Prior knowledge:
Residues 14-386 form the Glycoside hydrolase family 42 N-terminal domain. The chain is α/β, with parallel strands linked by helices. The protein contains 17 helices and 28 strands.
Amino acid sequence: MYPERPAGIAYGGDYNPEQWPREVLEEDVVLMREAGVNLVTLGLFSWALMEPEEGRFAFGWLDEIIDRLHANGVAVDLGTPTAAPPAWFVARHPDVLPVTREGVRIGFGGRQSACSSAPAFREATARLVRALGEHYRGHPAVVMWHVHNEYGAPLGECYCEHSVAAWRAWLRRKYREISALNDAWGATFWGQTYTDWAEIDAPRANHTTVNPAQRLDYARFSDGQHREHYALQRDILRELTPGLPVTTNFAGTVNCKSTDLWQWARELDVIANDHYLQAERPDNHIDLAMSADLARSVAGGRPWMLMEHSAGAVNWQPRNLAKRPGEMRRNSLAHVARGSDSVLFFQFRASRFGAEKFHSGMVPHAGTGSEQWREIVRLGADLRKLAGLRGSRVRAEVALVWDWESYWALELDWRPSVDLTFRERMDAFYEALWREHVTVDFVHPSADISGYRVVVAPSSYLLTEASAKNLHRYVEAGGHLLVSYFSGIVDEHDTIHPGAHPGALRELLGLSIEEFHPLREHETVTLTSGDPARVWSERVRPAGAVTVEGFADGPDAGHPALTRHDLGAGSAWYLATAPVTGLRDLLARVLDHAGVSRPRGLPDTLELVRRGGHVFLINHGDRPVTAEGVSGVSVFDGVRHDGPVTVPAGAVTVLLETPHP
Ligand code: GAL
């Protein structure tokens, strides 16, 4: 199910009129019309106003706001405010306050101050959501439900007494017999064998390291508890308002490590993602593209919604740089290019008080005389011209393997090198593909990947037998797979696959690893191509694979660094190190081998993405860029381009494509 309204691309954001006097609402609706705002999210943090005392609900203030918005053509994404339980509730049920891994019970005064497993919180949630659903059932302004806010951020794992009780029940359901749990957790190591479920605790902070299989299960369990809290609300809302889609906003697909979004996606009617730039990071638009591609991928390739981003600066980074002129527009259109059917912000009007008073809004503190407001109004007009894109898809020939379980497992304590991190490798490969102008999907290793020409596994440390077989079948049937080091090492219990590494992939890659040789910080080795490489070297023993490139020096001098194993109708490549500069060339070799077509000769400051018969050309650089091989009519100014298209510095051109003459 997908929201039927607003038509076209949804534009707007979180709206918190309860922070303002009534007159401001009048001003806001006028401004919303000026900017073309057609959707706002309401009530996300308003539990204290909706239920001022236990069991007494007060929706009159909200009715007035919703009616006013409705009269002005603005639809409502109605929030359930469970991310902000009220003070009276927490005072009455202090046991709902979450406990950190270190054993600190957090206090009231922030948000997310209740544990998803706490029975009193679940009961109060159900009561409130039922009242909200009953009150707004049939209201013409409400087009979708927005449950909670960013599950998992900042509250991922909780270590309170309710969590431990739920954890034991979860383990019982999963393992049935305590002996099965002991086997799965390798409990004979350090003499941790359990004889009763009641002996099992959460993997609390410890003076040494805690059983990694226990921690991995706790990550699964904790994420699942939040999903249960979400599903409790969703089921009530589905019962009361069967025609309305239900969602929750992800705390940035790429940045919220604790949520397994492949699992979450099954529970949502529409995928909604938040993304904030790391303001100080150069080329932060590449992280944005990655977040959008991952959102589209967890949506199963279908359109999704950008639920939050910022019009200007955020307030929670060390140095909160304002967006430069044009940057907000590039960001917004990049999300649309990559499949979003909405451009929504946190928030409509910047707050005067509270923790986020220095966070930008669509209406900044400087008001509507500002450059930022002019950009907001212009963007609204541009999005109306892109209305026809709604519902259209983005196609990719290349996929990156992304599995949250592998992410969790890889970054537990005591691994061969602290430089082995999931995001570091994922970012490196994504960036190389982005610079090659290749649009990618993300896939779970067990998914149907037969439609991709190339699949890359940058960091698949945890890989089940079944997933490894899936990759094997893919290659045999003609797929081309590139695997990076430290993949296929352990199974779902963080137990090493039998025999030499990489146990799950030895046969497929046609090689084995005799020894890991992690490099020192800042140490590099040289490949036979002359390119430097860092982080990792290892002794590869080919058994069917051919050497494409070797190590010229370092601990594995004279041995393979890049191999290819031709298998069935496809090929399986393996890269045993982290090239410093050469990753893009090396990837290009694999893409060429697999026949992946892509634009050539374009500078890598230009983002080129296709969606629904349109080509988006986003120039992130400070010079004009000329693109060959694209033609069509510019959506924003109606100009026809038959020859090369020049995109001014910092600008975005969107062409309704026509075949190139
Ligand atoms: C998001 C959150 C919003 C707001 C925003 C500020 O993570 O969902 O409520 O706090 O950050 O950037």
